[in-house]
Specification:
TIM Barrel, 41% helix, alpha/beta
Amino acid sequence: MSNDTRLALLGPHGLDAAGMEAFVAALGAACDAGDVAAVILRLAATDERGLTAQVKQVAAVAQPHGAALVVACPGFTGDLAAVAIRGGADGVHIDKPRDLKELRNRLRDGRILGVGGTETKHAAMEAGEASVDYLMFGGLYPDGAAPDAETVLARVSWWAEIFETPCIAVATRADAIGALAATGAEFIGLESGLWLTDPEAVGQAQAALAQVPAR
């Protein structure tokens, strides 16, 4: 790993239209505070038109700052790829996927397909074999519970050491950033609780990355 590890910002689970204005304002401030490679937008399920409008709002802030926008919407039974494309997002994020091959075929022309929620090494390897663009390890569950930090660290270490597909290692606490970055993960994800009300946390996270020795 070198010190070019970059940050990804995770939005709160179940973000809806009512919370969008505040989220967009916070995101703009966070992107102004430091280098953000990607934003993972975790929306509440609603109709495709409503989701597309929300994606457009966030894309208008994230992308001018150079951040890729990846859309997740657990529980949505419609066409998430179509929502992402129509909304101008850079791709989609799926947790515990079933049919990655179909999504991979639809998300071409540089669009991103990311996967999280892989609870086993076998599931992670299957996702990697489907030519996803990244795997995400860690991150809060929708109910707000945090996965076991040591398990996440071990899984990130295993993946970063062996596989070429990039990974996002998610920190739910600021003091976890250094250890996760030391694994060689290409991206460190910041849970929304770390940055949403404190945009300067992005700059602080970058400072923590700079302290990690190169591998």
